[in-house]
Amino acid sequence: MTAFVLVSGGHTGGWVWRDVAAGLRESGAVAYPVTLTGMGDRRHLGGPDTDMDTHVEDLVQIVDHADEPEVVLVGHCYGSYPVLGAASRRPERVGRIVFVDAPLPRDGLSVLQQVREQMPDGPVRDRMLGQPARAEDGWRVPAPTEDEWREWGNPAGVPEGGVARLARLAAPQPVGTLTTPVRFSDVVDELPMTGVFCTDGGSMDIAGVEALVATGSPLFRQLAEPRWGFFELAAGHWPMLSTPGELVEILLRAAAGEGRRLGARA
């Protein structure tokens, strides 16, 4: 029986996975939708000291308390950072890591450090880097308004009323989760991984990854290894809300080892 640990993006919680979790369970899988400390209905547990290490520990505890010998860690957007941190601490319990419209974190960099190094100049980068300055009480980055979700969050395909619900349930993000570096060891370089690109308004697809690998950069060389598989999904940035059935199918296929392989590159 395959067990999925579902970790959502910033400002949200396990509630965004409701339909996906139900679909996985109907297929016979086990689903653990995660709400990280300070997020969702655990927002009251956050504080100035809540940081990346807190969220990594949240996931380690989920893995440790799961009955299944292995889990598939699924990280959406920001969730990919604590996912890799937890995988580094419990590699023997991780059968696969799935990145859903998420960056590939780098060891020793925080979310904002990676934005500063890798994101092209523009309003999205400026907004991300300006988050600490907007933090209320010095540590709570306000959740986006409904208009801001529509402008910055790429909710393409989310049903009527879904964006309003996203805004209503979104929580302030503890700024330490964005400024504290994530740490993971080389052990994660041996784990099977899958990338899922959401192509409706997204900035990356399989062809784009192939182009990155073809540059020969060591940063992207690993993506051509056989342990990596890739899928594309015609959805915006929130496929768990817009196309949950399709995402369930992709997650099940990923867990089974399916996905496009890029092949070796010189």
Automatic annotation (TrEMBL):
Signal peptide start-end: none
UniProt domain AB hydrolase-1: residue ranges: 4-249
Domain of life: Bacteria
Keyword Hydrolase: yes
Single GO MF descriptor: methyl jasmonate esterase activity
Pfam families linked: Abhydrolase_6 (PF12697)
Keyword terms: Hydrolase
Protein name per its UniProtKB record: Alpha/beta fold hydrolase
Species name: Streptomyces pacificus
Source organism phylogeny: Bacteria, Bacillati, Actinomycetota, Actinomycetes, Kitasatosporales
